[in-house]
Write a structure and sequence with these properties.
There is one protein chain. This protein has helices at residues 30-42, 58-66, 91-105, 124-136, 150-159, 180-187, 228-246, 250-259, 287-296, and strands spanning 3-6, 9-12, 16-17, 47-49, 72-77, 79-80, 86-87, 112-115, 143-146, 164-168, 190-194, 265-268. The protein is an alpha/beta fold and 319 residues long. It is 34% helix and 14% strand. It is built from 9 helices and 12 strands. The chain starts with a strand and ends in a 23-residue tail after the last helix. The strands form 3 sheets. The protein has an 8-stranded parallel β-sheet with strand order 3-4-5-8-9-10-11-12. Strands 1-2 form a two-stranded antiparallel sheet. Strand 4, helix 2 (58-66) and strand 5 (72-77) form a beta-alpha-beta unit. Keywords: Oxidoreductase.
Length: 319
Amino acid sequence: MEQRRLGDRRVGAIGLGAMSFGGIFGPTDRATSLACLDAAADAGITHVDTADIYGNGLSEQVIGAWGRRDIHVATKCGIVTGPPRTVRNDEAYIRQSLEASLRRLNRDHVDLYYVHRRQPDIPVEDLAGTMGRLVQEGKIGGYGLSEVAPATLRRAHAEHPVTAVQNEFSLWTRLPQLGLIQACGELGVAFVAFSPLGRGMFGRDPLARDFRAGIDFRDTNPRFVEPNFSANIAAIRPFRDLCAARGWTVPGAALAWVLAQGDHIIPIPGTRTADHLRDWQGVTLDKDDIVLIERILPAGFAQGDRYGDHQMAFVERYC
């Protein structure tokens, strides 16, 4: 697999998002998750991304049980599930969260540590100072920010260099192209694209609307409720037809498009099972392919917001 820079390391250009190991999108078990991690490593994936809230620590526990030390691991803190759901970026909370994550991960150091959401009333310079001290103490290799605006990135980076920014980015979520991807490129910061397959919308097969109420947040997500869901399935159908005609897998083509948007971009698709990993690689797009794909799926084609209003509370908006 192609390698891309993430901090002072080079990792596989495609990483693995481990949210589903926490049972967020459907039932799983430790053996299945461990088999998925083994298959990912065999496929050349060397970066795994998790968070303390994925299954209330379950995803971290699975990665800790896996025990591979040659894999670059990132985790996150900052979202307090509540009720009420809120965020904390104070140093005491970050340190407490990091120690708990390290125990679950069975590590004394994590390669990359993100603030999952920014707390608006704490200056980002103070947050960067906290993370810089953790780097100096050897607790973390580098730090990242998630769902932030370009101005926030620049302020944090001026205080202590940021390793990575993680925001949602895919064929149907293109907002980061309005300044954030460019800012990362200028500063030498990796842009880690989460949900690059549209939370399953660009999976191997078209989604059915059978999400688990109260567990799978897609059940109430604006893009996955009617009439938006059917409209989005229909909008993506010509892209699926193109992939079939070209002999591409749908996930492979969607990821190839994300990768083509900048050599500092690392998408982290997620899956519960090893079976889906083979769909992610093997597609290379030329300039004409990209033009055609963007004609079929122009920026802004998706119907519905990517989050419900309650989930946008601590997402920075800049356009």
